[in-house]
TrEMBL record:
The lineage of its organism: Bacteria, Bacillati, Actinomycetota, Actinomycetes, Propionibacteriales. SUPFAM superfamilies: (Trans)glycosidases. Residues 1-30, 55-75 are annotated as: Disordered. This is Glycosyl hydrolase-like family 15 (GHL15) protein. Residues 55-66 have a biased composition (Low complexity). It comes from the Bacteria. It comes from Nocardioides endophyticus.
Amino acid sequence: MPRALTSDGRRPMSTSVTTDVPSEGTVRHHPVHRSAVRRLAGVVALVAATVATSAPAPAVDPKAPAGRVGSPSWATGNGVLTLDRGDLAKTPQAPRGDVVVMQSWEYLQIPALRRKHPGITILMYKDASAVVKEAESATGRFPAGMGYDWVAAEHPSWFLRDRTGQIIEWSDWRGLYPMDIADSGYQQTWARNVLAELRAHRWDGVMMDDVLTILSHDTVGNRVSTRIPDDDAQYAATGSFLARIGPEIRRAGYLAVPNLSIEWDNWKATLAAWTPYVSGWENEHFTNWPGQDGRFSGADWRWKFDAARWLAARKVPLLAVTYGPTGDRVGQTYHRATWLLSWNGRTGASVYVPDELASSHWLPAATRSAGRPLGPALERADGTWTRRFTRGTVAVNPTTESRRVLGVRLAPTTAVIRTR
């Protein structure tokens, strides 16, 4: 997703590299700061769109309810993000969680998910800021609000261009072309198309990816848009989009859950300004940058934790997403425990997305439950945190030194979830 600033104001190095691939087809390779469109070419046999019209609106299922108004109540604090082909089939435990985010063409999975968990929240993935050249071969559905070819034929002015007129393409995720999201026509079309898909089946809402507060993506040829040339312009454009789209989705009875690119120095002002527009938030890279060594510690851990606590105190759901290897149980426990420290026991979910394509998305260390919180998280003098739950205790050491907590020695940036 976005490149982030470090706590001292510097942008980290290597923000556009991808993870190393040991063998072809075994590992999801997502850019270090790229959001969850991941591996579009591998999702359900995507092919290039061949018509210059947007996909027709799906027929409305008369048995499908309008959706949910307001904030859902999520009892386990767990969820899954299943955007690649076969993810749901490899994750039969998905209905055990509170929320599933999946691609629009996976709607055939909705009845089975609801039979197994009638209260589950099912969100459709849509990119808010960009279009792609691919469509799903059988249905013509897009992982965005519309298709590239339709925009090129009907509204080419919506493409962001540089001063020579060249269309901007993101280089950290080739094939995605950012739009002028402040354009009222783009906003209207995005909302109309997404609402038509939500109404066609029993979706609860939409997860809106690439809701950017800064120019988070590098571009092919380092091209700079004339309409959104800097971070301030990006922030204003995104604010315009959310102010219109979020309330429109919610008025129609659906959840609007953007994937927000907050940073260490803008998270509180951004959440305060934009939360009234939406039903909740997703935030990626909750406890680490994937593909880079180390987990967040110190100030970098603290601002992520504080943002999660800020939302929990206001009963605003947060999907806290971390990416990493299936075998990294230490990282999964650190992610889950950090989330549990912030959780209000009713809203939001922690989500761990494994790198490996063959892996289930329901991993024991990443989904472990300690029950409901019995009180607030407590910070100790040595920089560690603990919290009591109805069925256990959680301890997190976000420092760079080993600490003794709950009778055990915790290495730097590790955690323990003790259950009874």
